Amino acid sequence: MLFFRNIVSLLIVLPWMIYHGPESFKTSRFGLLLARSLASLASLGFMFIAIQKTSLADATLLINSSPLFVPFVVAIWLKKSINHRLWPVLIIGFFGIGLILRPNIKIFDSGALFALAAGITTAISIVAIRLTTTTEKIHTVLFYLFLISAVAALPLTFFYWESLNTKTVLELILMGILAAIAQALFVKACHFATASQLAPFSYSAVLFAGLIDFFVWGKVPDWIACLGIFLVCFAGILIIWLTQPKKLSTN
Q: What is the pLDDT of residues 205-220, one digit of tens each?
């Protein structure tokens, strides 16, 4: 899954690179592109493992806790202090996630820990992509993301390869196509806003997950979960209002 998701996306981006000529393959921030790609691949791998080991709802919600970690990644990586006005908002966001998850002893099973690791590595990826988009073109960022991820995932296929039927192949291709579209839209968004401003939009995955649960599996969240979703979305909107748009820098 890791390999096919990235190799299909790479094949989609490659004609775009050829169209823009040899300059498209040049980059001045390969280190950042490498860090972003490995963080993204790790997040995807943790997500796949988490979904196998714990419920889809718990895994999705923990993975989408990444926006809450972005300010901390920025603080540690870029040595930028967290705006004091964000602390109450971050607390609200964590409390909302807590209401949705209703932590108990089971939340600390291995699946939940992998999901949390996916959330943290996603936060690292978000900050890295913001830094690269200040100097790199969208297609260049996407090309190296999918290339590095595909190469890194390739060795795993030799140990875990299974025969594929037509249905599975079509699903893997569709996953790669959707991944390419999602990454292109996200990289484009990074040209217009900071990592902290974009991160709250990831909270919308909670709403989409709830809708999928309802329409596909007929599950309806109770009032506690609805309150948690409201608090998380409310916190995301507040972060957008409180965060001033400015470019991140490594200096």
A: 767 777 777 787 777 7
